[in-house]
């Protein structure tokens, strides 16, 4: 009986996975990412073992986050920027797309492979949608681990794409070196739906769809200037970088080289001063502490006694019978005495 | 032997405190606030009992937070605004000033009573500096509890002042109904040192020191317009309020009536739609959850075993031997098995 590819793949040993990844074999890489995403305990254990083995080979990519509301042209920008980067034949790009809506609708991002046609046809590019997990911190962990696998597989540019209207941006910002925000020329318009904190995360802001009748439109120019003004009202960036704003147009291939140059300047600046390592170390430590905090608090709030106590005390507070501080003390005291 | 006032005061019973506060006796009020701030266990217990008794009489004030960097003219604005509010003889104002630096330097805010000369001479005004506690959540709890005591004492306007460069703004924002940010006409200037998130908390922004040669300066006008533009890049406010920006000059008494009117409009808008109660209920629930979370996490991190494990695993992470997620799992697992 002939073996199907599935049979062969499912027989991969841990060593096969590790070798395949380090060889840059994208079929094995995809398979390893699927392991990471699996909910089976044995897959989880295997994936974690693989991760630990490939860890020394990670950290060599430029990790770039790209966000913007639907319609801003993320895929078009990624395709244009990606092709530009791949003009240097030594470069390899992995694009990880996080779609918070994918669980329900299978989301639009899952169609990105079709939308980034030229990029996905390039053998030095690897495009992978990351469907949102349902666990606390699920998406960010899977995405971060996927990023590490891609680095071990030799991708020296990792682009993580989010839709800019959810919670994932903070998580992504915490795992990339450079955060790129895409806006539209109708900027200043609240319809842009930018979420709390996203503007101040941005290292680079690109106003896409800036070209009209073969030149930068008045509106796009105005948007760029307004954003520059607005940025003064945001706290200054860490690591002495001043957020850059530029007009681009991915469809018309305008200023994509400038965008690439700005990203390079950012990395040169960060590298020269040793900021890149510092940022990554900070990210690692925060990730450790946040994972611990989330786990501890999740355990606490999942406790049935806690749920009951909370409901009871919230009523007492709303009824004006106790302060929040007194209630908090009592809840914790009650649990200690009972638990 | 003659009794000193101190002797009399120290003999106050719980009932004396409660009656004194409800009668609006500011000497008893001050004494009760001192009890709140005391580190002695018996004082703490007594203060909490008093609080619980006066709770039904709280909630009737307009709770206003005012922040801005040193030099922006907070005291001058509070004095001008306060005197305006006190023109209505039925109004009573309490000003609580939080100075994060007070522990070290005894801070500049402690001098506010001198700086707000006219206001502090007014019998319907009560000014009280709140020195920063050294406990987690210390300042915010004491300030919130002080606010409640002031409300029970009949103050229908509570102004909480912070210096705008620390961590206290988030805490204050979580206990007031209306958050007022003061800026200078040199706006757009990063020297303003506005901290992360403060711009988006503001319900009202006043550009102080706007008058030059008896009219609003070009710079002050420009600042107001720029801030309005910048605000479009911040997420829209909850409770359908659009942040208002105005030029004022407290020393020259310019637009202070407009400021008061804007604050009144804000409260009318919030009251009409039932938003004020909704906001306060949300604040109560968040305060409960945050106090619980802080207490639980503080207990965790104070544990010696946790400290050792953290140090060890942070080294492993930096050395590239494990991921933050794996380390977090191991720390929690180790503690469960040992503890």
Taking the sheet with the most strands of chain A, its summary is: 7 strands, parallel
Order of helices and strands of chain A: HHHHEHEHHHEHEHEHEEEHEHHHH
- In spatial order, strands of the major sheet of chain A run 3-2-4-1-5-6-9
Oligomer: homodimer
Helical run tally of chain A: 16
Class inferred from helices and paired strands of chain A: alpha/beta
Shape of chain A: globular
How many angstroms separate the termini of chain A?
59 Å
Strand content of chain A: 5-15%
Largest interface summary: A-B, 59 and 59 residues
Low-confidence stretches of chain A are 102-110
Helix % of chain A is 40-55%
Cα Rg of chain A? 23 Å
For the secondary structure, the number of strands of chain A is: 9
Average pLDDT of chain A = 86
Brief description of this entry?
Two copies of one chain form a homodimer. Chain A has helices spanning 5-10, 14-22, 26-37, 41-54, 74-85, 102-105, 112-115, 117-121, 138-152, 168-173, 198-201, 218-231, 256-272, 275-302, 304-318, 324-338; strands at residues 62-67, 93-99, 125-131, 157-162, 178-183, 204-207, 211-212, 215-216, 244-247.
Please describe what this structure looks like:
Two copies of one chain form a homodimer. Chain A is an alpha/beta fold. Chain A has 16 helices and nine strands. In chain A, the strands form two sheets. A seven-stranded parallel sheet of chain A has the order 3-2-4-1-5-6-9, with helices on both faces. In chain A, helix 2 packs across helix 4, helix 3 (26-37) packs antiparallel against helix 9 and helix 15 packs antiparallel against helix 16 (324-338). The first copy, chain A, is globular. Chain A starts with a helix and ends with a helix. At the A-B interface, helix 4, helix 9, helix 12, helix 14 and helix 15 of A face helix 4, helix 9, helix 12, helix 14 and helix 15 of B.
């Amino acid at each position: 009986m002939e073996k199907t590819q599935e049979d062969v793949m499912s027989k991969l040993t841990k060593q096969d996975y590790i070798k395949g990844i380090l060889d840059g074999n994208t079929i094995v890489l995809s398979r390893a990412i699927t392991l990471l995403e699996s909910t089976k305990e044995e897959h989880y254990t295997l994936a974690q073992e693989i991760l630990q083995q490939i860890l020394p080979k990670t950290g060599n990519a430029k990790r770039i986050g790209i966000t913007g509301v639907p319609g801003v042209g993320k895929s078009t920008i990624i395709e244009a920027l990606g092709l530009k980067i791949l003009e240097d034949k030594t470069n390899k790009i992995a694009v990880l797309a996080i779609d918070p809506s994918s669980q329900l609708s299978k989301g639009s991002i899952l169609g990105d492979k079709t939308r980034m046609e030229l990029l996905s046809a390039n053998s030095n590019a690897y495009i992978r949608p990351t469907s949102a997990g349902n666990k606390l911190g699920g998406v960010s962990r899977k995405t971060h681990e996927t990023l590490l696998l891609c680095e071990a597989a030799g991708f020296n540019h990792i682009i993580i794409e989010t839709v800019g209207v959810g919670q994932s941006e903070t998580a992504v910002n915490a795992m990339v070196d450079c955060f790129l925000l895409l806006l539209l020329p109708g900027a200043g318009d609240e319809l842009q739906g930018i979420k709390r904190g996203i503007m101040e995360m941005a290292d680079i802001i690109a106003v896409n769809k800036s070209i009209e009748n073969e030149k930068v439109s008045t509106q796009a120019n105005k948007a760029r200037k307004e954003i520059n003004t607005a940025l003064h009202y945001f706290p200054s960036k860490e690591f002495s970088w001043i957020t850059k704003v530029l007009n681009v147009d991915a469809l018309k291939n305008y200023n994509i080289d400038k965008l690439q140059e700005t990203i390079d300047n950012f990395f040169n600046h960060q590298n020269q001063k040793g900021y890149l390592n510092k940022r990554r170390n900070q990210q690692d430590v925060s990730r450790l502490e946040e994972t611990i905090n989330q786990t501890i608090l999740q355990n606490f709030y999942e406790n049935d006694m806690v749920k009951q106590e909370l409901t009871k005390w919230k009523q007492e507070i709303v009824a004006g019978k106790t302060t929040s501080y007194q209630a908090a003390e009592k809840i914790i005291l009650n649990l200690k005495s009972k638990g």
